[in-house]
Amino acid sequence: MTNRQGRPLPVADDLSQPFWEAAKQQRLVVQRCRECGYFNHPPRPACDACQSQQLQFEPVSGQGTIYSFTVMHQPNVAGFENQIPYINILVELEEQPLLFMVSNLPASDLDKIKIGGQVEVSFEEVDPDTALPQFRPV
Amino acid sequence: MWTGRGKTAIVGVGYSELTRNSMKPLGVLALDACRAAIADAGVRPEQADGLATYPDAPFLGAGSRDGQDIVSVVYIINHLPLAPDIRWYAQIETGMIASPVIEAVHALLAGACNYVLIWRALHQPHGRYGAWSSTRATGEAQFMAPYGCTSIFQWHAMAWRRYMHRYGATREHLATLVVNSRRNANLNPRAFFYTTPMTREDYLSARWIAEPLCLFDCDIPVEGCVALVVTTAERARDLRNPPAYVAGYGQNTSRRRTLFHYALDDYMACGGSLASKLWSSSGLGPRDIDAAELYDGFSPSTLYWLEAAGFCPQGEAYAFIQDGRIALEGELPVNTFGGSLSEGRLHGMGHIAEAVFQVTGRAGQRQIRDAAAVCAIDGSPMLRGSGVVVTKEQ
Is the minimum CB–CB distance between A37 and chain B shorter than 8 Å? Predict the structure, then answer.
C-alpha cells in the first residue's frame, strides 16, 4: 500500500516490543506459554489459558487461512480516508485454532479472497522503525 | 425452576423523545423518561426508593460527561426528587441493560426496596460512529488501528461473512428481517422510522458500510432514554397497569475461545450460556415464547440469537425468518416494535419495553394475539449481554 501519511502507527509497549522488533527484521513471532503451550495474541501479562507468567515469543510459520474478510467503505480511521474502499482480512494462523491476526489486502486482490484460502506473511515497512505483518494469498 | 419466578413485575414504562440531535441534554431526556415511567406505573415519585442503570456510552471514546454523554445513578439522585431516602441502587458495568433489571429483581426479593426505577440513556455523539483519530495505536488497538480495522461493524461484518459462507445465507435472506423490523416500526409511534417505510429494494440498494453490511444493517443512533419501574408482584396488583411478571432471566457467562475481539465460532456457546439460564429459570422454552425481542445492534445478531436461544437449529435462522414466520401475525413475531434497527439504538432497553407492552396488551397497532410470554435479549451473543422473560400471568 502507498501513502501511509497520517495513519495510526503501533506504539510498542513492554508486552509487545518483541513482536514489533521481530517484525522489523521480517520475522513473525507470537507470545507462547511455556507451561501449557498456548499462543496469546495480542500478548498478555499472563497466559489466557493457564495464567502462567512463563511466556516467551516464538517464531511461527507465517502460514494461515482467511477466516473472514470485509471491504470497508467508511472513512472512520484517520489516514485511511484516501484508501476507501479497503480490505481487511482476519487470518487464522496455522499454529492454533482461532489464533487471529488482522491484515490488509490490496483492493486488486479482492477476487483472490476466499474464506479458507491460504495466506502467508509478508512485511510492510511503514516508517524507518516499523514494519507491519501483512498477509498475502499464496 | 427459579424460586423468584413471577414474584416481581415491570409496572411502568416511560420514553423520552428519540431524535438524532436533541435540543435537550441527555440528562434532561433521562429525567423525562423517568418521570414518564413513574407516571405510567401510577406511583408517586417519593415511592421510588431504588435505582439501577447500565450507563455506558455506545462505544469507547464517546465521552463520559455525566448528564451529557451518560446518565449515572448519582445524576438521577441529584436531579430527580424521589424517595427522601433512596434505599438501594446499582450501577452495572457489564451485561447491558437487562442486568440492572435482574439486579432490581434481586433487590426487591431481598426486601432492600419497594419500587426500583431503571433507565437507559443513550447519547448520540457527533461525528462518525467509533471514529479513530489518533496516529498512535496503543494497547490492543496497536494490532488493529494500523490496518484501519478499529470499528465494531468491521468485526460484525467479518462474522456475518463467515456465517454466510458456512451456511449459505445471502443478503436477500437478511433483507427479510430488516424489512420486517421496519414494517413493525411503522406501527410504533415512538420509533425513529415511524413514518419511513422500507422496501426490499431500498435495503438491497443501500450504501455499504463494511461489506457485507450495509447502512440498514446498522441500528439507527438516537439520543434518548427509556425508563422502567419494577416492583414486587404483591404491590403490582394494586397499580393501574397490568403487571409484566419477570418469569426468568439469564446472563452471558461464557468463557470465550478467543479474546482478540470475537469470532463467529463463539456465538452458539456464548449465546447458549445466556439462553439456557433464561429457559431453566423461567421453566419455559423457545416453544412457549409468543414473541422474541432479540438484540439487533447489527442485524445478523438477531439471526445468531434465533439459533443460540433454540428458536431454530444452528445454521437455519436465515431460512427460518422467511415466509412471514417472524411477522406480527407469524408463528414467532420478532422485534415487534422495529428493533434497534428501526426504533432506535437504545442498547436493548427498547426490547425490554416492548416485551412489557406485548404481555400487558399495550402494544397498540402492533399488538400480537395471545401474548402470554415474551423474551427480550440484549447484546450480541459473542459479547456480554443478558435477557429476561416476562409473562402475562404470574
Answer: no
- What is B8-127+221-391's CATH number? 3.40.47.10
Q: B259 contacts in A (CB within 8 Å)?
A: 48
Q: What's the whole-model pTM score?
A: 0.97
Comparing C-alpha atoms, which of A18, A19, A4 is closest to residue A125?
A4
Q: Tell me which H or E stretch contains B130.
A: none
Domain count, chain A: 2
Query: Are residue A88 and residue A130 in the same domain, yes or no?
Result: yes
Q: How far apart, in Å, are the Cα atoms of B333 and each of B48, B285, B324?
A: 34, 16, 9
Does A37 map to a domain? yes
**Do B311 and B286 contact (CB within 8 A), yes or no?**
yes
Phi, psi of B15 (to 5 degrees): -115, 140
> Contact at 8 Å (CB) between B92 and B348?
no
Give SS3 for B165.
Answer: helix
On the question of pLDDT at B53 being above 80, the answer is yes
Residues in chain A with CB shorter than 8 Å from the CB of B142 are: 10-13, 16, 42
Cα distance between the two ends of chain B: 14
Beta bridge partners of B374: B291, B390
Q: Does the ipTM surpass 0.95?
A: yes
DSSP reduced 3-state for B158 = helix
pLDDT digits (tens, 9 = 90+) for B251-294: 999 988 888 878 898 999 999 999 999 999 999 999 999 999 99
As given in the structure block, the three cell numbers for residue A105 are 489486502
Range of the domain at A33: 12-60
B163 → chain A, closest CA residue: A68
The CA-CA-CA angle for residues B63, B68, B69, to 5°, reads 30
On whether residue A48 sits in a domain, the answer given is yes
**Pair A52, A29 in one domain:** yes
Chain A environment of B221 (Cβ under 8 Å): none
